Each structure stands twice: as structure tokens, then as C-alpha cells.
Amino acid sequence: MTQQNRKRRADEASQSYPPAKRHHADDKLSIKSSPYSNFFPSPAFWDNLSKVSLTRWALREHNRRNNNNPPKAAVPAAHTTGLARLARHGGPDLCDLRGYPEPNVNHVMASNRSSASGSRRTRSTPSTQATSLSTKSGKSSAYGPQFEQHLTDYGVYLEGYEYPDNRLTPEPGNHPDISAPRPSLSPSLFDQSKFRDFKRKDARATFENNVMTTVIPIICGDADIPNQQNVLFTELKPVTSTYDDVVRPKPDFFDGTHIGDLDGKVRDPKGDMYPLIIPTKHPTVPVAPNFFLEAKAPRGAADVLKRQACYDGAYGARAMYALQNYGEEEPGFDGNAYTYSSTYHAGHLQLYTHHVTAPTGPGGRPEYHMIKVKGFDMTSDRDAFVQGATVFRNARDLAQEHRNQFIQAANTRARQPRPETRLCQGADTQGSAVPQPSSTGGNWDWSDDYESGTI
User: Fold this and answer.
1) 38 contact partners, CB below 8 Å, separation of at least 6
2) How confident is the model at residue 44, as a pLDDT?
3) 199 pLDDT exceeds 50?
4) Which end of the chain is more exposed for a tag (fewer CB within 10 A), N or C?
5) Is 355 left (phi over 0), alpha (psi -120 to 50) or beta?
6) Confidence category of residue 106, pLDDT binned at 50, 70, 90
7) Dihedral, CA atoms, 266, 269, 273, 278, nearest 10 degrees?
């Protein structure tokens, strides 16, 4: 073989199997193609979970810790027995290799079979396959099973949660009727042709954005309620621990009120209520939200939707509780639901209520409960759509009534000429039911609760 031929074959082999792309260690922790691309739970998040499920993110954290603290390989003991006797007893002891990090080796293979077939496809090595698996993550991962366990550990319970001590999930004290007919959904205004148009748009909704722009507006109707879509809540205090552990809420859709509807004392950026009821710094984004919608395309995960709705609802329930008890010297828990959430996935609409209850023991945290109200297959027939849209719209109206009622009461108390008192959010981190006032007679000092995430 001539020197020229050998060089040509070597070039072909290198083109058929180029070296695997080198990845930095930090790349393994990145999350691509996600609205939470910079989020990854802190080590404390995993350490504080009462139970860790076998998920992709749990494996990534396990690998991260192994890479940061690789075990030192022990020197195996010398074997002096014969090979046959060693084999009869199971071979050498390989326990010293357990947990040893996988060597980072890039294999460049030259195969005569691939050269003969003229293949030019690039084959991934085991190391690149592992890297691509670890970086393929998104919004669903942020709301995965480990997130549900985190919510449970901090007293935020999803619909259907079973308590270890066999306690029954507390139902809200109020059960309003939200099935009253709406004239806008009568046969004369919403006939069979409009239902077929809704069904056609739902079938064509390939992506979540399609669902939000073409399907959800039909369900919402023409209600004049301040709302916003896809806004990250940057100003609210975490309802569990810290935002190093969990993502900030970002509802697909939510209702609230205009910030001008709140008295200046209630919405004061330096006041106690601000981080409980003001989602963002933007002045046109509704505040004090207590109705939420999470939607996904048909290929989306329904269990993720439920976790997102539960998370949103806890913030809404806390906001209503804060307004309800604003200025009260002895705030209490009435056990009623003043917040609603809903999910829409593949034609199915689910509606939930959210309410807050008192801590179950000294030093405990307030508990947030998610209760299912109704569920509908909106694309099955016109009657099913009308029933679902009726309940959805009535729930929005009822949430607005609760919101306006609490805002009016809070504004009235804020304008009364009396010493300003601080809202109590149940129990503080030390377990005291009501915090004591400062020596100056001003606001309560809740800095410790803010850092610990109690409120």
C-alpha cells in the first residue's frame, strides 16, 4: 500500500468517526431549552428531602457529588491462590472498585465495515450519551417527583395526598355553587358550530403556546377581570424554603386586581404585605392573584400540571389569608377556600380550590390544601364544554368577589387612625402563635421568618 493510499484511508476514518465533543464539568449541570435554564436545586434541597425518588435530577446530583469527592481506590490484596481455585470461589474481590468514577476516555474507532458501506454518521461514545442525557431537562424536571416531595415536607399538599397518620384531608368550610348557568353560553350565543370551532382549534394545538392563544380564550369568554399570562413572580417570598431549592412560580394565566385598588399602606414596598401580595415590580401586572390556570399541549405531562397548579394555589391562598387578616391583632384560620386553580391538558379541564389551615402542632407551619372540585372532557360534546366553561367562568367571578372583599376590608383597616400592627402568618420559626411588637410600637420583626421561608 502506498503512502498516499494510507493517508487517504486515515482521512476517511477520521471523517466517519470524529472525536466526541469535549464537555466541561459545568455543562452537566446546565438545563437547556427551558424557562428555568439557570435553575438547579441546591445541595441543601436534597439533604432536606424526607425521601429522595430515583429521578434524573437525583442521579445528576449523585453524579455531581461523586465527581466533586471521588472515592480513593483501595489497594487490592494480593492473591496467591491458583487461578482455578480463585475462579471456583467467585473470582477476586472487586469491592474496592465500587463508586470509582468512570474514566473520561474518548474512543476513536476505525471500522472496515463502515468504510466499505460509505457511512459518514457520527457515533456517540458512552460518555457523550451520558452527558446528553443529563443536559436534556426542562420545566417538567423542575416540577418533578422530587418537587412534590419538597412541597409535602413544607406542608403544601396536592389533591389526593394521603397522610402517614391516616388523617383525612381537610375539606374547605365553604362549598359555593359555581354551576349556575351563564347567558353567554346559552344555545343561541354558543351553538353547535362554535363548539365545533373550539374542538377544531383544540385538535390543531400542537404546542402550549397554541393552547394558550387559541383554546383558552374561548373557555375564558369576555370577562372583564385583570389577568396576565406567563409572568415570573419575582417579588413574592417563597412559600416553602428558599428559591435556591425551588423555582419561582410562573403561572400560564392568573387573575388579580389593579395595584391602584390597594391602599398605599397595604402595597407599600417597605411594608409587610408587599412580598405576600405583589408578584412583580411591573405596575400593570395584576396583584393579589387568587385564580390560576396551567395548560400544556397534548404531549405535556398531566402530573406536572397538577404540581404547578398546587404550587400556584399555595401562593394565592397565602395572599388571601394575608389580606383577610391584615391589621388584626389575633388573626385566625377559618378553613375556607378563597383561591382557585385549574389545569387544561388534551381537552380535559380540572378545577381545584386551595385553602390554608392552622399548624397541627407547636412550632409547626401553616398547611395548604388542594381539593378537586370538578373535571370535564371539554371536547366530547357541546354540553360538556358548556358545563366546564360555566364552572370555570363562575370560579373566576367568585375568586374576584373574595379578592375584592378582602382588599376593601384591608383598605378600611389601613385608613383607620390606630397603631399599625403586623400580620401573623400562623406560627413563626420559633413556634410562637403571635409575634411580639417591637419596643418602638411599630411593625413586627419577621426577618427570621422571611429567611427561613415560613411565610
Assistant:
1) 31
2) 76
3) yes
4) N
5) beta
6) low
7) 100
Give mean pLDDT, residues 424-446. 37
Q: Which three cell numbers stand for residue 22?
A: 469535549
Of 400, 354, 405, 370, whose CA–CA distance to 255 is shortest? 400
3-state secondary structure of 404: helix
Q: Is the distance from CB of 315 to CB of 366 less than 8 angstroms?
A: no
Cell 476516555 belongs to 105
Q: Residue 129 in contact with residue 101, Cβ under 8 Å?
A: no
- Residue 290 grid coordinates: 387568587
The model's pTM? 0.68
Phi-psi region of 272 (alpha: psi -120 to 50; beta: other; left: phi over 0): alpha
For residues 426 and 365, is the Cβ–Cβ distance under 8 A? yes
Residues 1, 12: Cα–Cα separation, whole Å: 16
Predicted confidence (pLDDT) at residue 450 exceeds the cutoff of 90: no
Structure confidence at residue 391 as a pLDDT band (50, 70, 90)? very high
Mean pLDDT, to the nearest integer, of 137-160? 82
Residue-wise over 262-279: b if at least 16 C-beta within 10 A, else e? bbebbbeeebbbbbbbbb
The residues with which 345 forms a beta bridge, in sequence order, are 296, 348
Q: Which residue in this structure is represented by grid cell 373574595?
A: 402
Q: Packing angle between helix 126-135 and helix 56-68, nearest 10 degrees? A: 120
Is the pLDDT at 139 greater than 80? The verdict is: no
Cell readout for 438 is 417591637
Q: Which residues pair with 357 in a beta bridge?
A: 367
pLDDT of residue 109: 44
All cell numbers assigned to 439:
419596643
CB atoms within 10 A of CB 53: 12
Report the pLDDT value the prediction gives residue 116, as an integer from 0 to 100.
43
CB 62 within 8 A of CB 146: no
Compute the distance between CA of residue 134 and CA of residue 152 in angstroms, rounded to an integer.
26
Q: Which amino acid, 402?
A: H
Confidence of residue 180 (pLDDT cuts 50, 70, 90): very high
* Cα–Cα distance, 450 to 313 (Å, whole number): 20
Q: How far apart are CA 127 and CA 103, in angstroms?
A: 9
CA distance 183 to 29: 53
Quick check: 293 and 344 in contact, CB under 8 A? yes
Whether the Cβ atoms of residue 28 and residue 60 lie closer than 8 Å to each other: yes
Instruction: For residue 411, give the C-alpha cell.
Output: 383598605
User: Which pairing describes strands 287-296 and 348-357: parallel, antiparallel, or unpaired?
Assistant: unpaired
- DSSP letter string over 111-157? -HHHHHHT--PPPPPHHHHHHHHHH---HHHHTSHHHHHHHHHTTEE
Contacts of 88 (CB under 8 A, 6+ apart): none
